[in-house]
Design brief:
The structure holds two protein chains of two kinds. Chain A is mainly alpha-helical. Chain A has helices at 2-38, 49-75, 87-110, 126-144, 153-171, 178-181, 184-218, 227-242, 255-266, 268-277, 279-289, 293-315, 318-324, 328-357, 363-400, 406-412, 414-445, 456-460. Chain A folds into two domains: 1-146; 267-463, Up-down Bundle (Cytochrome C Oxidase, Chain A). Chain A is globular, with a radius of gyration of 22 Å. Chain B has helices spanning 4-27, 39-51, 74-78, 80-89, 101-117; strands at residues 59-60, 63-64, 125-127, 133-135. Classes of the chains: A mainly alpha, B mainly alpha. Chains A and B meet through helix 2, helix 7, helix 8, helix 9 and helix 13 of A and helix 1, helix 2, strand 1, strand 2 and helix 5 of B.
Chain lengths: 463, 141
């Protein structure tokens, strides 16, 4: 039994460490990308944006995938105390994903492309990624197949994450078939349909870990079984399946697709309403649990959920989307959700895992992590506002002076780019402050034996 | 929704709806673009667009990177000679990709194909009473 614990702790820490390294690489590439925005002519050949952008985006995608799967290996425990029993499959899965990720990074560095936005690598490299998720699915199934009774919500989220990743990842390669690839509009519609679900699928993997954490931190396992929790899970799933059309309002597709997207995205108002309705109790929970390190990251993610959801609902109204689409407002939303929500939730999970399974942090490390949390979130707020400013500026200029050459338009937006490039450095520094102590803990203390059970509040208190 | 059967039923119903909607998206009508004998070369151009990762800086229908302009209607807005000159020589911010004549022709054919699928700038849309947008009818089309 002990060996199984060790196996999954080892696998979990391997995934987390790899994820954290991709996170550090991702923010470093992001800083370089910001520099290119400031000096596009001077850096045109030295730092080609065609390579930097996929390096940045893919690093962050791999951070999300590796660390959320790491959480799955660490937290998916059977009632009888067994973990996922799949030493060989688990390690094979890790190796496949790692090999694909490293090869993809090498391809980008060498300027070898062939895919499409977000998956720019040659399509053959999609095979090891898909197979690794298939193995994850098998491992997950083996761990839950004998479970009796209703599943807690996080298990539904993990299962949905794996299934929909496989479905939508495969769907994103339908362009290889002439029926899809030869028709630009159909191809783009299917591409963005699959991307919408793909993002939803890794959100499910992340949210599964975050929900597990909330149950553990609050000590209230019933949180994962309440009907209201399930209602919002199914609402999220509904949006994963149907809320992708706002990306393609401008594309000449059928009205059914566009109206479906519009209607479905408005159901997010229910989630926004719930956040506002439970705001007072969330605040009192936050005050009560503020001393818990992972909880601090969860609070930060909560604030970003509110801001980005509000923004997403506005952007999903086609009349508003007509002006925000194709501007940096879209980037603000993507960055707000990826850094503010996904990264904060995953860092909460990593802090929890390091404290619970890998020996915790020294006082100096804790101070650095807290500084990093404040620096990254403060900088992200400036970054987010700067991108919205650039987006609004672009939309206004395009409406008022439609014939303005692109180079002049970009020059006028330069003050916003300066703000976002500088705040980008702040985000990167803040994330490094958090990620480095986590990596240190995972590298140095991963062989430590399981600690004696302690009350959660004593384990995670940072002060 | 507490019972496993209830949860499974909701999940299955959503999944069936998802499969049906997916099928609809796959077969829904899209604009037919007549490229005649230039269809093949336009597809070659699409491959080149992907091989050089043009979407990291440029957009089609507002989707892509924002360092460069949207190219959906560059052919009808600026003309083929303009697009050809930029693809051949690059600009202050866009590198010269050193493409062969055949590749330049293929990329132009792809951009021409994209141009024929529809219009992207805001003045080509109208907003209905529900807040949905629709492409304006153009006389003669």
């Amino acid at each position: 039994m002990q060996r199984r614990w060790q196996v999954n702790r080892q696998l979990g820490s391997l995934y987390l460490m790899t994820g954290l390294m991709f996170l550090l690489a991702g923010v470093a590439f992001g800083v370089l990308g910001g520099l290119v925005y400031l000096f596009p002519q001077e850096l045109r050949d030295a730092l080609p944006f065609t390579r930097l952008r996929p390096l940045h985006v893919s690093s962050i995608v791999f951070w999300i995938l590796f660390s959320s799967i790491g959480g799955l290996y660490l937290y998916q425990i059977k009632k009888d105390g067994k973990n996922i029993n799949g030493y060989t499959l688990g390690h094979l899965q890790f190796l496949l994903l790692l090999t694909a990720a490293v090869t993809i990074m090498c391809c980008y560095l060498a300027g070898i492309f062939g895919g499409r936005e977000y998956w720019e690598y040659p399509p053959a490299l999609a095979i090891p990624i898909a197979v690794s998720f298939l193995l994850l699915g098998i491992n997950f199934y083996k761990s839950v197949r004998r479970e009796k009774g209703p599943w807690p919500i996080y298990r539904w989220m993990w299962a949905s994450g794996i299934v929909f990743f496989l479905l939508s990842f495969s769907e994103s390669y339908l362009w290889l078939l002439p029926y899809f690839g030869d028709h630009l509009v159909r191809d783009m519609a299917v591409q963005w349909k699959s991307y919408g679900s793909l993002v939803g699928s890794w959100n499910m993997l992340i949210n599964g870990g975050a929900f597990y954490l909330m149950c553990r931190l609050s000590g209230d396992a019933s949180l994962a079984r309440k009907p209201l929790t399930f209602f919002f899970f199914f609402l999220g799933l509904f949006n994963l399946m149907f809320n992708w059309g706002h990306h393609i309002y401008a594309l000449p597709v059928s009205n059914t697709i566009r109206y479906t997207a519009y209607l479905v995205s408005m159901t997010e108002l229910l989630i926004l309403g719930k956040i506002i309705w439970t705001w007072r109790s969330s605040l009192s929970d936050a005050r009560k649990n503020a001393g818990l390190l992972p909880y601090r990251f969860l609070i930060a993610a909560d604030a970003w959920i509110f801001l980005n959801l509000f923004m997403a609902i506005l952007m999903s109204i086609p009349a508003i989307n007509l002006y925000t689409h194709g501007t940096h407002i879209t980037v603000a939303h993507a960055m707000g959700t990826t850094i503010g929500i996904n990264t904060m939730l995953l860092l909460a999970s990593a802090c929890y895992a390091c404290t619970r399974y890998f020996g915790g942090f020294s006082a100096a490390q804790l101070r650095r992590i807290m500084r990093g949390l404040y620096l990254s979130n403060g900088s992200l707020l400036v970054f987010w506002v700067a991108l919205i400013g650039a987006g609004v500026g672009k939309a206004v200029l395009q409406v008022q002076t439609p014939d303005l050459p692109h180079a002049l338009l970009m020059q006028q937006l330069r003050p916003w780019f300066i703000a976002f490039a500088i705040s980008g450095v702040g985000i990167a520094a803040g994330i490094a402050f958090v990620a480095l102590p986590l990596l240190q803990t995972l590298l140095l203390r991963r062989a430590k034996p399981e600690q004696q059970p302690q009350p959660e509040k004593e384990i995670y208190a940072y002060e | 929704m507490r019972s496993p059967t209830g949860q499974l039923s909701v999940y299955s119903s959503l999944f069936v709806a998802f499969v049906l909607f997916t099928g609809y998206v796959y077969v829904a009508e899209v604009p037919a673009v007549a490229m005649g004998d230039r269809q093949e070369i336009a597809l070659e151009g699409k491959q080149l667009w992907q091989q050089h990762n043009c979407s990291s800086c440029h957009q089609l229908y507002g989707l892509g990177g924002y360092l460069g302009p949207d190219l959906t209607n560059v052919v009808s807005d600026k003309g083929i000679p303009y697009a050809k000159a930029i693809i051949r020589g690059g600009t202050g911010t866009m590198p010269n990709f050193k493409l062969s004549e055949q590749e330049v022709t293929a990329l132009l054919a792809f951009l021409e194909h994209a141009d024929k699928t529809g219009k992207v700038s805001r003045e080509h849309f109208r907003i209905d009473s529900l807040g949905q947008i629709h492409a304006k009818e153009v006389a003669g089309e």
